Amino acid sequence: MEGWRAAAACQEVDPDLFFPVGTGAPALAQEEEAKRVCLRCPVREPCLRSALAQPHPPSGVWGGLTEAQRWSLARLARRRADDRG
């Protein structure tokens, strides 16, 4: 396990919170609750970097972002890198 994980705020809550099932109101509420945990997390940035570094982005909320949000962030970063390249 990566060293930063031991200090993660998510260690204090049920892991299922970070993996909402579905796209309806209950799943969206669960997603928002998970993001609130991430907001108070001292290792949010390393968590997000770790998720973004994966060849296949992990599902769920990592570093305060959903899988779809991380995909968008990664696409934006690739575009910016292409523009500079």
TrEMBL record:
Keyword Disulfide bond among UniProt keywords: yes
Predominant cellular place of this UniProt entry's protein: cytoplasm
Places the protein is found: Cytoplasm
Transmembrane region(s): none
InterPro entries associated with the record: 4FE4S_WBL, Whib
Start and end residues of each 4Fe-4S Wbl-type domain: 9-72
GO cellular component: cytoplasm
Keywords, in A-Z order: 4Fe-4S, Cytoplasm, Disulfide bond, DNA-binding, Iron, Iron-sulfur, Metal-binding, Transcription, Transcription regulation
GO BP annotations, alphabetical order: cell redox homeostasis; negative regulation of DNA-templated transcription
Entry protein name: Transcriptional regulator WhiB
The species this protein was found in: Streptomyces vietnamensis
Lineage start: Bacteria, Bacillati, Actinomycetota, Actinomycetes, Kitasatosporales
